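Per your request, structure below.
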């Protein structure tokens, strides 16, 4: 009989896919079949990747195994995957220390890349949902106004086929 972990869902913590081994080494656990199924659904249904389409995968705070599953599935659909990985701890420091000039500079390059994409898959995870909670309100507002809004709301939402998961 298989024991089912009731807390497991599509939102389970992908960091737990690494298991400790003796002497401090890590070994990779075989990919969960649910990841493969979800990757197929996101690529072939949610954004319906077509041959030659460029797909930006933004993975924040998740394990690389699921990103690899998405990459493989995009290639299988004839698409071209472009991957950007980020950690919320890094994002936190970028926003905390940033200013309008910095956010506009970041947006300049992100907008250029986003305009070149036909599809977008955003996957958010991480161990700490409150990682950005100590970012000052002014900096967060400036980040949203000068980076997030122009890149995501003006380009991604209006010009790409997209899906975002948390």
């Amino acid at each position: 009989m298989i024991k089912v972990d009731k807390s497991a869902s599509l939102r389970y913590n992908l960091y737990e896919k690494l298991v400790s081994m003796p002497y401090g080494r890590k070994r990779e656990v075989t990919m969960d079949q649910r990841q493969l199924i979800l990757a197929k659904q996101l690529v072939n249904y949610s954004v319906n990747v077509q041959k030659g389409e460029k797909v930006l995968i933004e993975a924040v705070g998740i394990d690389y195994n699921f990103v690899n599953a998405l990459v493989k599935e995009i290639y299988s659909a004839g698409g071209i995957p472009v991957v950007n990985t980020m950690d919320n701890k890094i994002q936190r420091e970028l926003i905390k220390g940033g200013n309008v000039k910095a956010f506009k500079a970041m947006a300049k390059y992100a907008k250029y890349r986003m305009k070149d994409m036909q599809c977008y898959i955003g996957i958010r995870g991480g161990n700490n949902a409150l990682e950005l909670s100590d970012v000052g309100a002014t900096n967060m507002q400036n980040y949203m106004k000068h980076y997030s809004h122009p890149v995501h709301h003006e380009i991604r939402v209006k010009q790409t086929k997209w899906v975002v998961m948390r």
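The chain has a mean pLDDT of 84.

Regards,
D.
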